[in-house]
């Protein structure tokens, strides 16, 4: 058959697809990967399929689902045909009994042949021929009933327009999509008025129509107001016929347009997210080859991003780092779970730290997200040093406080012991002087530290000096016990010997007292303070 001759240009079917659609036999083209690439309209009608639903389907699955059920058993067995398809052999003409979209059964012949070699090696053409189709084409053309059924049940909306713009024919799909008939839109002028009621938009449609659809034969999409008030996105393509007529093909792309717009929106949002972060996004395959990249506006690279494409990580990274990343890639692909790692790279101006997050994708590919974390690492190191310094300060301060507390506890302990001793001495003296149990004189007691600052003063000493406990505490002994003509510190040097002296009270009055000074010793015998005893002479 003419359509099965060998072809050397893989784009021939694309360029002449509208011609193949006009052939009186069904044609299915399978590429060298054994995937369905093209189905003409006759094949759609005979097999009862829609081409958009089978494009990309594996040839074996297509044969099993749509061809094998129609085999009559008079020719090759289905398993023999499937084996021929798998092994790349031609399939001779085999009878079929097909129903198609018309609902009427008819016989046809199925054949499959390998097309070309070289770049087209392994591609094949499947043909579905009606008996006597070539003879009818040479004499009276395609069978009118079949042709009418094909037009009426075509998956595309068809509108036939003559040279004067009159609408001669609209198929069932046209009415199904737009709800219009040729009575509603008898000519193109009425079509434009009803499908595009907005004058401004209609003007843009007419400009595009003349320039793009009629002159350049390029499809265009428009928003169409249907007869029932719905607004649909319709893709229109014009095919010029004899006598100035045009066959308009209309395809409802509303859902496709919505999906495309959503994809554009999603892509824009994703790009905005990428631009907001100074990260480098690499799509790599299982062996570390960089397939694609994305980068934020703030990403700072020392090489041109295009330099990365097609190169392996081991070709652009140090050997140890590349080995670490490759090991992580294998681990992520095997576990099908994300992972992250950190590494350092020598960069101009010093070494920088990076974090790599690996996310598994389809077909053994990964997304590697690289982020420069040098500043974070520096901040963490600075925080660590600050924390260590703070801990050292806390330890030093704690040691100082502990030492001060120990000294204070010792001082208070020996003050307590000294006062107890002084009280006992006073009682013994009272027993000696007043055997008849009369009231014994009380002594004033002032306790100081080694520097001479008053730590404790009792009530008798408060009365003798005129200073309250709050006023005296923290003052030096010279400020509280003011000796007339003498230095109170000499009393401490004198040990425990008593001495008569005159002191000046806070109010300026003079009082004669017996003074005695005695050191306070710790457990090791070291002096930690002094006790001064004052006894008034009655």
UniProtKB/TrEMBL annotation:
PROSITE patterns: PAC (PS50113), PAS (PS50112). Keywords: Coiled coil. The keyword Membrane does not apply. Transmembrane segments: none annotated. InterPro entries: Biofilm_reg_signaling, PAS, PAS-assoc_C, PAS-like_dom_sf, PAS_4, PAS_fold. Residues 143-185, 443-490 form the PAS domain. It comes from the Archaea. The keyword Coiled coil applies. This is PAS domain S-box protein.
């Amino acid at each position: 058959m003419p359509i099965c001759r060998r072809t050397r240009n893989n784009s021939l079917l694309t360029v002449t697809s509208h011609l193949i659609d006009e052939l009186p036999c069904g044609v299915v083209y399978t590429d060298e990967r054994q995937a369905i690439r093209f189905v003409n309209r006759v094949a759609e009608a005979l097999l009862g399929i829609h081409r958009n639903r089978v494009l990309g389907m594996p040839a074996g699955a297509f044969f099993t689902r749509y061809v094998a059920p129609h085999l009559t058993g008079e020719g090759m067995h289905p398993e023999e045909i499937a084996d021929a398809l798998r092994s790349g052999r031609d399939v001779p003409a085999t009878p079929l009994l097909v129903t198609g979209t018309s609902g009427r059964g008819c016989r046809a012949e199925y054949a499959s042949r390998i097309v070309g070699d070289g770049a087209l090696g392994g591609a094949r053409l499947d043909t579905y021929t009606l008996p006597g189709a070539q003879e009818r084409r040479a004499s009276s053309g395609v069978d009118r009933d079949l042709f009418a059924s094909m037009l009426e049940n075509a998956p595309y909306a068809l509108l036939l327009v003559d040279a004067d713009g009159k609408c001669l024919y609209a198929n069932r799909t046209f009415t199904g999509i737009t709800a219009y008939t040729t009575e509603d839109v008898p000519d193109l002028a009425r079509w434009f008025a009803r499908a595009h009621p907005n004058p401004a938009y209609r003007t843009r449609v007419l400009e595009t129509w003349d320039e793009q659809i009629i002159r350049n034969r390029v499809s265009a999409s428009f928003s169409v107001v249907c007869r029932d008030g719905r607004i649909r996105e319709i893709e229109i393509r014009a095919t010029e016929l004899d006598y100035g007529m045009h066959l308009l093909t209309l395809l409802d792309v509303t859902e496709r347009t919505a999906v495309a717009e959503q994809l554009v929106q999603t892509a824009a949002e994703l790009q905005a997210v990428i631009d907001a972060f100074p990260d480098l996004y690499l799509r790599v395959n299982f062996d570390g080859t960089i397939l694609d990249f994305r980068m934020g506006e703030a990403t700072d690279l020392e090489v041109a991003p295009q330099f990365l494409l097609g190169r392996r990580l081991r070709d652009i990274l140090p050997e140890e780092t590349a080995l670490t990343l490759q090991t992580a890639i294998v681990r992520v692909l095997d576990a099908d779970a994300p992972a992250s790692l950190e590494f350092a790279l020598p960069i101009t101006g010093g070494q920088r730290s990076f974090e790599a997050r690996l996310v598994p994708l389809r077909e053994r590919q990964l997304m590697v997200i690289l982020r420069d974390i040098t500043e974070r690492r520096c901040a963490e190191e600075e925080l660590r040093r600050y924390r260590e310094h703070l801990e050292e300060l806390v330890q030093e301060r704690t040691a100082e406080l502990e030492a001060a507390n120990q000294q204070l506890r010792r001082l208070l302990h020996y003050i307590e012991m000294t006062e107890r001793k002084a009280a006992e001495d006073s009682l013994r003296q009272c027993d000696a002087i007043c055997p008849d149990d009369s009231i014994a004189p009380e002594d004033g007691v002032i306790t100081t530290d080694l520097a001479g600052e008053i730590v404790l003063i009792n009530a008798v000493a408060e009365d003798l000096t005129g200073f309250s406990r709050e006023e005296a505490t923290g003052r030096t002994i010279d400020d509280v016990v003011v000796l007339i003509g003498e230095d109170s510190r000499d009393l401490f040097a004198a040990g425990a010997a008593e001495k008569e002296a005159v002191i000046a009270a806070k109010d300026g009055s003079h009082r004669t007292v017996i003074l005695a000074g005695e050191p306070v010793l710790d457990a090791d015998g070291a002096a930690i303070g002094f006790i001064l005893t004052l006894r008034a002479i009655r």
